[in-house]
Each structure stands twice: as structure tokens, then as C-alpha cells.
Fold:
Amino acid sequence: MKQLYGHPKSLRPIPTKYCGGCGHGVIHRLISELVDELAIREKTIVTNPVGCAIWADLYLDFDSVQPAHGRTPAAATGIKRVLPDHLVICYQGDGDMAAIGTAEMIHAANRGEGFTTIFVNNAIYGMTGGQMAPTTLVGQQASTAPQGRDPGKAGMGYPMRVSELLACLEGSRYIARGAVNSPAHVRKTRQYLRKALEAQIRGLGFTLVEILSPCPTNWGMDPVQAVTWVDEQMIPVFPLGEIKNTLPPGSGKGGSSEGVSP
Ligand SMILES: Cc1ncc(C[n+]2csc(CCOP(=O)(O)OP(=O)(O)O)c2C)c(N)n1
Structure:
């Protein structure tokens, strides 16, 4: 009989601390399913961000390290260089990556480091109470922009499209943007993640998947409003799809999209 649903071995069966409607839990599940499918759990290391996903090591049942805020690409660089046969996943929020850690990530991508980054873009600083991030949309309210982000106001600027920035660099091989606000988007995101992880296992270079992720608590919405907001407001600014793919033809067909756990 074909199993259609099960609990991934790599995901600990404990209650989540994440807020209702938060996308981090869905993303943890996708990572766990794929690590199980690729049968590489004993050789997987995650560098956790500072941000809400600082909790990731509670849930993901493989090795992890907790670098300082924004410094996960530096830690992932060192780990991947020393343990090239390991699957190294650099997990970052948008504050972690697109603000305090921008330099780390740009240089890691430019050097073509061989780890995979999962960049969780929820358009705000979640853990610290909803401050404006570089990815905050124009007009979006934040605790530090109560009237909404206004590029005309000194210091506020425009939403930063980090994936497109990194795609300009010759060192990056595969960059895609997915979302976890609907089953269809989750399935597509899973395919991008699988392609990136398989490319890493084959030693093909720097790979990154950005994931648009709801943050109802800091957006001041209920979970249903938040998933709709991703479709209506975020995706027009951060379009979904493969942004760069210079992997050899035929690499990473994306695998199963059914979420079947071994
Ligand atoms: C050096 C340093 N500066 C600032 C902070 C405070 N801080 C903790 S989490 C965070 C922002 C996290 O936002 P993001 O990366 O978007 O992740 P999210 O919580 O939204 O998932 C900040 C500024 C810190 N812990 N360390």
C-alpha cells in the first residue's frame, strides 16, 4: 500500500512554539521530508538564524549550530569547506540575511560556496516585534514605520529583492522563490528545495531558495488574511519562480511533490 502521509523522521514530534499561521513550521516540515527522502540525515547540518527560527534546533532532528545574527553564511562556509560530503543548510530570515547579514551572504554567493540557503522572507522582523525590514513593502505598517513604509522618507528606502541581487553574481548557480501560503505554492517550493539540495549533493555550487512566509502576528492579521496578503501584496513585489538556473541540463527534476515521508 502506498503511504500518502506520515511524520518525517527528521522532525521531532513536539508542540511548536511558532505563532498560529506562521510559515516557519511548514518550511521545517519541507526540509525534514527532503532530508529523509535524500537519506542524508546523519550528514545534515543546519546553521540557524537569529530570529524566530532560532527555535529550529528544537524541531529539526539533525546537527545544527547557532551563529550570531546574520553570520550563518560564514559558519556554513566553514562547515561546508571542512565537511564537503555533508548537506549544509543555511537558514535565514529577512532581517538576518537582508539587513545585518547582507555582506556575509553576498560574498558567500559570489565565492560560489557549496551550501544551500533557505531564505525566509516574511517582510518584517518577527522575533523582535515587527520592526521594518529591508524587505518590508511600500505602505506596509511596521512598529518602526507606523504610517507605513514610505521610500520618500529619509532612511526607509525600497523593498530589497535579495534573490535578484544574488542572481547577478557569477558564483550563484540556482536561485528560486517560492511561498508557503497555499498547498500549490508549498508543492512548488518543495520542488525548488529538492533541486537546490540535490545540486548541493552533486557539488554544483551556491544554491538558494527564498520562501515568502506569512507572519500574521506582526502583520496584525489573522492567519487567513495573512495567506491572502501574500498572494495579493507580496507576490507582485517578489514574483515566484526560478530566478536563476545555471545547473547542468537535467539536474534536479524536483522529485515528488506529494509530501510522502519514508
Ligand atoms: C547583533 C544583534 N543585533 C540585533 C539583534 C536583535 N534581533 C533578534 S532577531 C532580529 C530580527 C529577526 O528578523 P528576521 O531575520 O526577519 O527573522 P524572523 O524573526 O522574522 O523570522 C533582531 C534584530 C540580535 N539578536 N543580535
